[in-house]
């Protein structure tokens, strides 16, 4: 669970509205995991192969949730 939390915190600090806002809401207990999963899938589709540090984290997060 710590690894998942750490990754989601990276999504928050990324500043990318598509994922950062929902990630923070999930950490705060204000967003359902399905909402976070949807945002992660969208982020992965839009940017999952750009070579940034978040790319491998999308897949890893989906494996853990």
Q: Overview of this structure, please?
A:
- The protein has 65 residues and is an all-alpha fold.
- The protein has one domain (2-64).
- The chain is built from 4 helices and no strands.
- The protein has helices spanning 2-14, 17-27, 33-47, 55-64.
Main traits of this protein?
0% strand, 65 residues, single chain, mainly alpha
List the helices and strands and how they pair.
Elements: H1 2-14, H2 17-27, H3 33-47, H4 55-64
Helix pairs in contact: 1-2, 2-3, 3-4
The parts where pLDDT drops under 50 for at least 5 residues are none
Q: How much is the radius of gyration in Å?
A: 10 Å
Distance between the termini: 9 Å
Number of helices, counting only DSSP H or I runs of 4 residues or more: 4
Q: Largest sheet at a glance?
A: none
Based on secondary structure, the structural category is: mainly alpha
Please, what is the average pLDDT? 94
Shape: globular
Measured by DSSP, the beta-strand proportion falls in under 5%
Number of strands: 0
Integer count of domains: 1
Helix % is over 70%
Order of helices and strands: HHHH
């Amino acid at each position: 669970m710590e690894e998942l939390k750490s990754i989601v915190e990276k999504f928050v600090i990324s500043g990318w509205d598509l994922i950062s806002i929902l990630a923070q809401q999930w950490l705060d207990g204000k967003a359902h995991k399905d909402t976070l999963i949807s945002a992660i899938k969208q982020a992965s589709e839009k940017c999952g192969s750009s070579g940034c540090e978040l790319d491998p984290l999308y897949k890893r997060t989906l494996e853990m949730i």
